[in-house]
Structures are given as structure tokens and as C-alpha cells.
């Protein structure tokens, strides 16, 4: 590009998105004179899903602003907890975030997920059609224009991913109310009504069951319950009252 030169400062939380030479406190950027500020920020590698306020010469500006020569631009991160107006808070996760999807469902959070890769265009279209916040570690996917809302998942570790999303969006938590397999709601089930779905040892050992109202999967407190209970207890202890505190 051979146009106006501006000076951009990325917040420390956003600098890792940029190439090393752009991670300084301030960096000079030559624009084409017609691109919007949003386009310029994305050209530095930062998805707009991660951007909060944009300050031009100290004054808040819109992503549609076309920067002029000599302007200083401060790019701030999203404010946490982040509010997502316009629809009930629910999520759509890409194919690489299956463990995170199951943990969100365990906590009663509406988290749609496909175990097969349906492609970036379809994911973005579903986000828009269903008004779901798309969660991904793919920066290119988060830059798609048809996306309704999105968020970058910063860690590749499921424990850290869960804390990141719960801390960022503070969804209401209702553990043990959603099917971890299909995302459908659970209901209490009488032992006799699910007997044919149980192995003999399970029928003999357990008496309390729940069943998914969508896929008909049956749940009970089996061998893995202690591990799941630890996940639930940790999340509830740290984030269980977060939404109520914001009301």
C-alpha cells in the first residue's frame, strides 16, 4: 500500500495475533487511504471479535472510520464480561472444540457442535441463522463477514478453555440439565422406563436416572461421575454467581 501512514497501538492482550514486528507499543502502518479501520485492524491479524473500543486520536471511533494520515489508533480488547445483545446467549463450536462443547453442556450451557468438519462457510452461516456465538481457534473463520458473533478460544487446554469462555460471557449455569452428546434437555427418568437400555450391572447398582428428551440417551452416576463432579464444582465455585452479580 502507498497511502497515509497511521500509528497503531494494540493492547497487550491482542499483540500475540500480530507478526512480531507489529507487537511493539506503537507501530507505523501505511494504509491505502480507502480501507476502513476495521479492515486495517484485521490486516494486522486481529479478529474484530476480540476488539473492544477503537480510539482515534484519543476519541472513540467506529470500525467503519477511514483513517487519515498521522492519526493514532489504539485498539482495545473486548470488555469482560462481554454482553451479546440480540438473542439468548448460546454457542456454536467448531470441530476442534469437542471437549469444550461437552463441558459447557455438562454445565447446562447451550452449545451446538458437529463432530464432523462441516466447513467454515456452513459454520458462519449457522452462527448467523441461529444467532449463536461461534467459538473457534481459527482466526480466518472468525473474520468471515456472515458471522453473527464470535470469540477466539485462546488456549488449547480444555480446563483453560472452559474458564476463558465462562469468564468472558458468564452464561447461566444449570449443571446436569443438558445432554453432553447432543445438547438436548434432560429429564428425570424412572428406572423401569429405561430398564431395557441398561446393562444388568447398571440396573442392579443404580436407581437414579435421567434421559435426553431428544436422543433418548440415559444417564446415571457411573464410574466417571467423580471426575465430572469436580468439573462442575470448580465451575460453580468460580462462576456460579457471576450472572446474578451482573443483574
From TrEMBL:
This is Mut7-C ubiquitin/RNAse domain-containing protein. Transmembrane segments: none annotated. It comes from Streptomyces endocoffeicus. Residues 4-82 form the Ubiquitin Mut7-C domain. InterPro entries: Mut7-C_RNAse_dom, Ub_Mut7C. PANTHER family: MUT7-C DOMAIN-CONTAINING PROTEIN, MUT7-C RNASE DOMAIN-CONTAINING PROTEIN. Residues 90-231 form the Mut7-C RNAse domain. It comes from the Bacteria.
Amino acid at each position: 500500500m502507498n497511502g497515509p501512514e497511521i500509528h497503531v497501538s494494540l493492547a497487550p492482550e491482542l499483540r500475540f495475533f500480530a507478526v512480531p514486528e507489529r507487537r511493539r507499543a506503537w507501530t507505523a502502518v501505511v494504509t491505502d487511504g480507502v480501507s476502513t479501520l476495521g479492515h486495517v485492524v484485521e490486516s494486522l491479524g486481529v479478529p474484530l471479535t476480540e476488539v473492544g473500543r477503537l480510539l482515534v486520536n484519543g476519541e472513540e471511533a467506529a470500525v467503519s472510520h477511514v483513517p487519515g494520515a498521522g492519526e493514532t489508533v489504539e485498539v482495545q480488547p473486548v470488555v469482560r464480561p462481554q454482553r451479546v445483545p440480540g438473542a439468548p446467549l448460546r454457542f456454536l463450536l467448531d470441530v476442534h472444540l469437542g471437549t469444550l462443547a461437552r463441558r459447557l453442556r455438562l454445565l447446562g450451557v447451550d452449545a451446538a457442535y458437529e463432530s464432523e468438519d462441516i466447513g467454515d462457510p456452513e459454520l458462519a452461516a449457522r452462527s448467523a441463522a441461529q444467532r449463536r456465538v461461534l467459538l473457534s481457534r481459527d482466526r480466518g473463520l472468525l473474520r468471515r463477514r456472515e458471522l453473527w458473533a464470535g470469540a477466539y478460544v485462546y488456549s488449547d487446554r480444555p480446563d483453560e478453555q472452559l474458564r476463558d469462555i465462562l469468564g468472558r460471557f458468564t452464561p447461566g449455569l444449570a449443571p446436569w440439565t443438558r445432554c453432553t452428546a447432543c445438547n438436548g434437555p434432560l429429564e428425570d427418568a424412572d428406572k423401569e422406563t429405561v430398564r431395557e437400555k441398561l446393562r444388568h450391572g447398571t440396573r442392579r447398582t443404580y436407581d437414579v436416572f435421567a434421559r435426553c428428551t431428544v436422543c433418548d440417551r440415559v444417564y446415571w452416576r457411573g464410574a466417571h461421575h467423580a471426575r465430572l463432579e469436580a468439573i462442575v464444582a470448580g465451575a460453580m465455585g468460580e462462576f456460579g454467581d457471576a450472572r446474578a452479580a451482573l443483574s
